[in-house]
Design brief:
Strand content: 5-15%
Number of helices: 13
Oligomer: single chain
CATH class of the largest domain: Alpha Beta
CATH topology of the largest domain: Rossmann fold
Strand order of the largest sheet: 2-1-3-4
CATH architecture of the largest domain: 3-Layer(aba) Sandwich
Largest sheet: 4 strands, parallel
Radius of gyration: 18 Å
Structural class: alpha/beta
């Protein structure tokens, strides 16, 4: 299977190890992986702010770069939701384009969804200890991503997964929300960090880097230098340790 890996701009700029982890996991599952070298943003920030034209422009760019892949895989429920749920709605005035986007949307997968459909070799990781999982809003509510990452993590010997209180409550990131409503965002992040620490977990993991950066930033500002913050793919690919 020929798979296009959409790394996401945030991963590319802030934590490339997530992209390399996704690449390793996809190749280990037997896929031929192509990373479109001109990929940029999925268009979600502009779309969410009402700039529909920039959303359309970037959607068309995505269509041009990814239409020929058997599947497009993204290590982000947020970007995956934009591609799968919102791209087709941008072209309701063009039935030919809408049909093409609808067909491509059916081949867009969040990483955990995709891996659960593929044979994976036995997982080995340097991480041993207790994890807690944060459900990101877009992945959970737009794509229904809840059990997949947990199911994959629980296959790893030496990893204990413990659930936090309010695991599916927003961390306060919400894209532009954290900029426009900073005080509310900060309080939400504080609440999330309190729930994380109450589990006694060595690390918190999630599936969207925006959430993870928000959580890690708040943990460090509160003086917590011990709790690690990882994308679950970094754990599975052996790029995280404790």
């Amino acid at each position: 299977m020929r798979v296009g890996l959409w790394i996401t701009c945030l991963v590319d700029l802030m934590r490339p190890a997530i992209g390399f982890s996704a690449l390793k996991l996809l190749e280990d599952s037997g896929c031929t992986v192509v990373v479109p070298h001109l990929q940029t943003c999925c268009g979600q920030p502009g779309y969410n702010s009402g700039d529909l034209q920039s959303g359309k422009d970037l959607a068309l760019k995505f269509l041009h770069e990814c239409e020929d892949f058997d599947a497009v895989v993204v290590p982000s429920g947020s970007c995956g939701g934009m591609m799968r749920k919102h791209y087709p709605t941008l072209f309701q005035d063009n039935l030919e384009l809408q049909s093409r986007f609808t067909a491509l949307a059916g081949r867009v997968w969040e990483l955990s969804e995709f891996l659960l459909q593929r044979p994976l070799p036995p997982l080995s990781t340097r991480f041993k200890g207790r994890l807690t999982y944060h459900d990101s809003c877009s992945g959970l509510r737009e794509l229904g991503i809840r059990h997949g990452p947990r199911q994959l993590l629980q296959q790893i010997p030496g990893v204990e997964l413990v659930e936090m209180a309010d695991r599916d409550i927003c961390c306060g990131f919400g894209g532009a929300f954290s900029v426009k409503l900073g005080d509310i965002s900060t309080r939400m992040a504080e609440n999330k960090c309190r729930s994380i620490r109450a589990t006694g977990a060595h690390a918190v993991v999630g599936g969207d880097l925006g959430c993870l950066l928000t959580i890690e930033g708040r943990l460090r500002r509160e003086g917590d230098d011990q709790t690690q913050v990882w994308h679950w793919a970094e754990i599975l690919a052996g790029m995280a340790s404790h």
